[in-house]
Amino acid sequence: MGIIGAGPAGLVLANVLQQAGIGCVVVERHTRAYVEARARAGVIEHRTADFLARHGLADRLLAESARHGSCEFRYQGERFSVPYGALTGGRDHLVYPQQFLVRDLIESFLGAGGTLFFSHPVVGVAGLDSDRAVLRCEPAGSDAELGDGVGRGEPVDIDCEFVAGCDGFYGAARPSVPAGRLRAFGRQHEFGWLAILAEAPPSTEEIIYALHEEGFAGHMLRTPTVSRYYLQVPVGDAVENWPDARIWATLRRRLAVADWELKTGRITETSILDMRSFVVEPMQYGRLFLVGDAAHIITPAGGKGMNLAVADAGELARALTAYYAGAGSHLLDGYSAARLPEVWRTQEFSRWLLNLTHSPVGGSTDAPFMHRLQLSRLAQLRDSETFAATFADGYAGARPVLSPV
Fold first, then answer.
1. Which of 142, 193, 281, 358 could form a disulfide with 216 if both were Cys (CB 3.0 to 4.6 A apart)?
2. CATH label of the domain that carries residue 225
3. Is 19 within a domain?
4. CATH code at 281?
5. pLDDT at 362
6. Does residue 234 sit in the same domain as residue 253?
7. Same-domain status, 151 and 260
8. Is the pLDDT at 141 greater than 80, yes or no?
9. For residue 126, is it within any domain?
10. pTM exceeds 0.85
């Protein structure tokens, strides 16, 4: 198995295949230092944690993560919490930065003898319609190395029976499929997010989603000393328009409730997120299987992206394990059919959460009407146990799958 990409999806797949005795090689275009420091998601669903634990990949996660079973909504100076963990029978979230999980997965894979080429971008994928596929990789300058740190700065051709494209939206895997064989569905959302990472202790014990007339604000949890925040901004806005003083003032205003104070600190990272949704069908072609962001992009609302990617990896690992155990190729052939229903359900939930918490785009004639609908939904979420239970089921994520893999 040739695996393109050393993010959570590729590394989970590599570890599980390695445990099953299935040979695999991982190639990653960035350096090891980069992927182990790249700050991304931090919300790990119960199903994801359960899967990792069953494969011995969650020791540090379980020891160091913070458990959360409720989230808070704020609007018009009011606040209320939804106990999604209790409403779903204990499907709490674990908060654990994605880069920490990547570090753990790399250590596990290399510690068991796995082969991982860092700084080796894939420049070509051939043979997807033939008996064998070939990944052609070129070293990216002097940083090219094997996972164990041994220099390996020459081009690499990897001959493999199957290819897993775990290399994200802009990777080499999906473009290697001949034109017309995949169908793309997408939406560019009508607002952006300013993402802020700060060396600031959390000002909350729960993730906060705030609806404000100026726009959405989110306070996400990472570690006891680092917090993540999001602000709704217009499409086309720029980081340069958001000096630190403006960021903190806007967060205070949009998150404001009585008897609450926002803790601040040094802002270490700001970026404008391109808020888009994307799904490709099918998620496979010939000997290629698309996993995670290579097959679907989802907005950060609800923290679903990494969890969907790990679920893809788990299903592909299950299919490959069955195939190499002599059970035939029916699970491999059905990989897309197995994954796409959940992908679309999760896309729908993410869009619903955006509609719930984001101010209608200014200037639209129906903006006041749409805002009143938002207030009605929030009131139902606060007052209706049935409505809250439906939200909780989508927010907590799918139930653990009881399967050998």
1. 358
2. 3.30.9.10
3. yes
4. 3.50.50.60
5. 64
6. yes
7. no
8. no
9. yes
10. yes
pLDDT of residue 402: 45
Residue 172 — pLDDT band, cuts 50, 70, 90?
very high
- Does residue 92 belong to any structural domain of this protein? no
- For residues 222 and 336, membership in a common domain is answered with no
Strands 163-165 and 288-290, sheet pairing: parallel
Distance CA(33)–CA(31), nearest Å, equals 5
Q: Does residue 22 sit in the same domain as residue 118?
A: yes
Give residue 223's pLDDT.
Answer: 84
Q: How many domains, in total, are found in the chain?
A: 2
Can you tell me whether residue 102 is helix, strand or coil?
helix
For residue 115, how many other CB atoms are within 10 A of its CB?
17
CB 370 within 8 A of CB 225: no
Distance of CA 79 to the CA centre of its chain: 27
Helices and strands (H, E) in the chain, number of each type = 12, 23
Q: Any idea which residues carry the catalytic annotation?
A: 68, 209, 300, 304, 395
CB–CB of 75/380 below 8 Å?
no
pLDDT tens profile 49-101: 999 999 999 999 999 999 999 999 999 999 999 999 999 999 999 999 899 99
Task: Judge whether 90 lies within some domain.
Answer: no
Residue 171 DSSP symbol: S
The mean per-residue pLDDT over the stretch 170-179 comes to 95
Judge contact between 48 and 142, C-beta under 8 A.
no
Given a cut of 80, whether residue 41 has pLDDT beyond it is no
Burial of 258 (0-12, 13-18, 19+ CB in 10 A): exposed
**For position 39, what pLDDT does the model report?**
74
- Contact at 8 Å (CB) between 195 and 268? no
Q: 160 and 32, same structural domain?
A: yes
Q: Token pair for residue 315?
A: 């299903």
Q: Exposed, middle or buried by CB within 10 Å (0-12, 13-18, 19+), for 134?
A: middle
Work out the burial of residue 106: count CB atoms within 10 Å of its CB; fewer than 13 is exposed, 13-18 middle, 19 or more buried. Answer: buried
Considering the domain architecture, whether residues 266 and 294 belong to the same structural domain is answered as no
Quote the domain boundaries for residue 367: 192-275+360-396
Please tell me the distance from the alpha carbon of residue 60 to that of residue 64, in angstroms, as a whole number. 6
| Averaged pLDDT of the chain | 92
Whole-number Cα distances in Å, 56 to 59, 84, 108, 393, 397: 7, 27, 9, 27, 21
